Structures are given as structure tokens and as C-alpha cells.
Task: structure prediction
Amino acid sequence: QKRLLTMKEALLEEFQNRLKIKSGETTLDGKFSIDALRCVGACGIAPVVLVGEKVYKKVEPKDVAKIISEY
Result:
């Protein structure tokens, strides 16, 4: 039986698959690192993705490719 992923797990999996790295690693070009945080103090706009100082709110797996393409 296939288990349903939580949104957090689905987002993490999508970033890992697209960037070809795991949580705690950095891409070879040094542009991206993945760190899964429990809380960034933004519950009202969760799930949140931070890239540098930019905050992406209410992110869904379908948004990941667009976020990455901005960099």
C-alpha cells in the first residue's frame, strides 16, 4: 500500500529530485542547499520556502520548478 505524503514531505521530495541533492547537501554549483526546518515563524503562510532572503508562501510541489528557475 502506497503511503500518502504530507505536503512537507512532497515539497522536500520535489526539491531533492529536481536539484539532485538530499537535505543537508549543496548543489555542485553552490546555488542551492536544502535544509528542512521545523518552524520559520510563518505558520499563516505555510508551507514556506526560503531562498536567500526571499520568502515563497503557500508553496506546492507544482511551484518548485518555477522557484528554481528564478535562480
The longest helix spans residues 7-19. The longest strand covers residues 49-51. The mean pLDDT is 91. DSSP finds two helices and two strands in the chain.
